[in-house]
Write a structure and sequence with these properties.
513 residues; mainly beta; Immunoglobulin-like; 5-stranded antiparallel β-sheet; 1 helix
Length: 513
Amino acid sequence: MNKEQFNMNSKQRGAAIALLCFVLIYTIKAQPIINQITNGSFEDTIQCPYFPSQIDFANGWFKPTLGGSSDYFNTCSNSFTNTIPSASIITIPSNRFGFQYPRSGNAYQGLGIYSNKNPTDYREYIKNRLIKPITNTKTYCITFYVSFAEISRFTTSNLGYYFSNDSIVSGWAMPTLIPITPDFEIGSHLSDTVNWIQIQSTYTSSNSFRFFTIGNFRDDNNTNAIQVKPLINQIYNDGSYYYVDDVSIVEINSANASVNDTLVSRCVSDSIVLGTDSTEFATYTWSSTVAGMAALSCSNCPNPIAKPQVTTKYYLTKVQCSATTTDSVLVVVKTPTTIANAGMNQLICDGDIIQIGTPDSSAYTSYNWMPNIGLSCTNCATPFANPNTTTTYNLIRQECDLITASSVQVTVDDCNPTYTVPNVFTPNYDDINDTWGIKFSNTKYIKNFQMHIYDRWGLLVYSTNPDINTPNSKWDGHTSAGIECSAGVYFYVISFDKNEEHVELKGSLSLFR
């Protein structure tokens, strides 16, 4: 079949800024944020492969050209070799193309990207449907790992990737080249058969794309191939074959030392977590004063714990692919200066409720009120108090390591006094019942008190002095002129104001000698 043509001229391609990084495999991987590649390490297996060219057995992956035969390697295939001989072609670590363990997990994929033999322009690709499309104007870090298969006789510098909005599935037969301009090519010859080599670049898209393809998109005439071993006249050997593992597409986010530019640590012993993300393949470098760094749990992790003794500024430098961004955060350490203040002494009426204490910052502070009688809470700054009797409340306040105490007295008063009027008295100078007068339970709320005593003929015999009288004024059995009154029945008129209420009392009393 003739080469199938692909009309890509109408597609607006994204502008790519590529940076190639050759890094040996890391034994510890950073925690990923969001990998938009579906099944980037090929571990999610729909079915264990038992024959070459079964990359679609890895969830999310497929061949964009039906004539190609890119391969899926999985350790589960090792158990098929006795019953299905073809499974030995794709076993791990030893297989038809060489010897290699997965970079991570139990699986990887492989593809031939160049052949010195017919058919011309033979190519294999691996393609992925992204978890979500890459977004217009955003920049992404594209990472995958490759290892050169030992069977190969050629290295090439044209391994690359391509974003598209369609699956680009070609016809059934040869040739299998996808003749488009790739978004990225490695530009160097990779010949390491022992290690996994990191391929990493940045990509800024001017459109939204859903599919991602890895392979060689140039024809034989434009492929930069270098022979590294003698030819043996076999299509699989006299070519260039690479293993691929751990593919990821992660959005590049700027350094962010904290959600807020300033963090407050009220206590020296408090811990503050810095940083807001932990992005795969990114490096984080924190810097500060010597004392600030000594108070940091780590200097090259994404989310260190800071426990500075004084106010300290921390700086973050984040490198993700070729993007280097910086940010800073000020950790303010406040020395406690507020002491316990239970408030002013209070006078309340029986049954009333009053709030005690002083409203201050409750952050990093504990409160303990004693006794708990009549309190709405014992562990707050300003409880409500409703004691039945006069009570002294003690407050213990702790802010960080500062412990202080204070107290307040709540006096319970009788704001609605009662009274009784006796009807007899004996002014005989024995100090027992020698005077007569109204008896109040509380005279504090009694005003404008007046008392008048009359004999049985209605003559006024005694009256309190309006200038000096009090609710406690008493009649001692004498007239206002000081003459002793005889025994008998007398009449009284008493008036006063109680809590703004005017009261007038009239009645009789008996005087005995």
